[in-house]
Amino acid sequence: MANMETRRLLSQARSLTEGREENLRDRIVTALYARAEGIAARVVKKNPSPRRDWDRRLDTVLTSRLWGYPLMLILLAAVFWLTVSGANYPSALLGRILFGFQDILSGLFGRLGAPDWLHGILVLGMYRTLAWVVSVMLPPMAIFFPLFTLLEDLGYLPRVAFNLDHLFHRAGAHGKQALTMCMGFGCNAAGVVGCRIIESPRERLIAILTNNFAPCNGRFPTLIALATIFLGGLVAPSGRAAVAALSVAGIVLLGILLMFLTSWLLSRTILKGVPSAFTLELPPYRPPQVLRVIVRSVFDRTLFVLARAVVVAAPAGALTWALANIHVGGVSIIAHLAGLLQPLGRAVGLDGYILLAFILGLPANEIVIPILLMGYLATGMLTDLDSLAALGSVLTSHGWTPVTALNMMLFSLLHWPCTTTLLTIYKETKGLKWPLLAALIPTAMGLLACFLVKTLANLAGLF
Questions:
Q1: Pairing mode of beta strands 331-332, 327-328
Q2: Does one domain contain both 103 and 33?
């Protein structure tokens, strides 16, 4: 009898889950909450609360299918705009201060009679690279992380996760990946650390491996500059800003779509499994504690990520200077390496110097353009130009077209993570397999995307 009863119960369980296994937990939780609400409605008398009514009215708009997504995109776009535009002046000011100190260091080395090679490695290589990384990374992170934390403290980020949960669930990922994706726009290393909030190890790995598809603040300067110079230059001056902004927004949306696609592929191949349910009780809205949020975001996120970037950027600066200043057969090593990469670069609509700049820029995406200019101009040290027009002139003189710029933007979105992010992935996953996979997946997609664009441009006679 017991066996028959057990089989009957198992049969009932199968009928409940047949064809809808992933929805069973949601149905159970929904039924429990409905039952609890029914009991509470019978035994609890509530005084009208204006604050609770206000929360419900906000949620009716912010989590609705009609307005939730547009408002979410507008708010996140505003955060990006504040981050990018607000960081311009402090980045320039910090750069002038740090590079001004470089002159003081150079004078000190001269008075001490230090050899040129030592001055080159320590000042023009290590210190100049650190100055670049700090001046470009610190201001955007100091703006983005507090803004992001304020939204979190306000109670809005759980609504973002609620809105995107269905899409990530359809991709075989976890709804909380929406939060780690948003963190990746500030810094992919911080986004990877944020993946700790995902309880399922399988879905945490999916979030870690795909976080690089969210372009970090280190890639935005390159995207914005190239979009303004080349893609914005295709239209009248009055419309250049709009075209550049739409181009960058399109690149960001492409990265999000590829994140969904890659998550879907991973969840059905090497990380196969049943998506876990994401039961989220939306917290009430509350005024953020601004001072505490700023202090926490600066020390826990901004300085933490910046410290890791500095550690890996310093030796990279020394190596880059050495490659640019050691000559073999009258040609610098950096020129030899660019020549070796030239066939692959041309095949995907780029060139050898571009690919080499991405390789040497592995420690930080911020130094890709300076390394590229150093190779093009043979200056022997990281170089900056004082205007977009000057940058456009140098790139055009080396054969760049709008198609080259588009491919550069695509490859900036789709290539290996920076050293800081790879190191973070290694520490989070405690193995080499996952950092290598995190580098291979976007790079293969980036080379393929650039090749397709170049092929289509050739067919249309544009390249």
A1: antiparallel
A2: no
Please tell me the total count of domains within the chain.
Answer: 2
> pLDDT tens digits, residue range 299-332?
766 776 677 667 767 787 788 888 888 888 888 8
What are the structure tokens assigned to 266, written together? 């991973």
> Does residue 125 sit in the same domain as residue 37?
no
Across the range 224-246, mean pLDDT stands at: 76
Quick check: helix, strand or coil at residue 331?
strand
Q: How many other C-beta atoms lie within 10 A of the C-beta of residue 414?
A: 24
For the stretch 343-367, what's the b/e string if a residue is b when 16 or more beta carbons lie within 10 angstroms of its beta carbon?
Answer: eebeebbbbbbbbbbbebbbbbbbb
Residues 290 and 433 in one domain: yes
- The whole model's pTM is what? 0.75
3-state helix, strand, coil split of the chain in percent (to 5) is 80, 0, 20
Strand positions, DSSP E, 145-298: none
Contact 365, 354 (CB under 8 A): no
Residues 41 and 76 in one domain: no
Please check whether residues 310 and 377 belong to one and the same domain: yes
Angle at 11 between CA 7 and CA 16, to 5 degrees: 150
Tokens 């994706």 sit on residue: 181
What is the C-alpha to C-alpha distance for residues 444 and 327, in angstroms, rounded to an integer?
Answer: 32
Q: Which domain holds residue 155?
A: 67-272+286-460
72 contacts: CB under 8 Å, gap ≥ 6: 62, 159, 160, 163
Q: Which helix (H) or strand (E) holds 131?
A: helix 128-154
| 278 is a domain residue | no
If you ran DSSP here, which 8-state letter would residue 195 be given?
A: G
Query: 392-442 pLDDT, tens per residue?
Result: 888 888 889 889 999 999 999 999 998 889 999 999 998 899 999 999 999
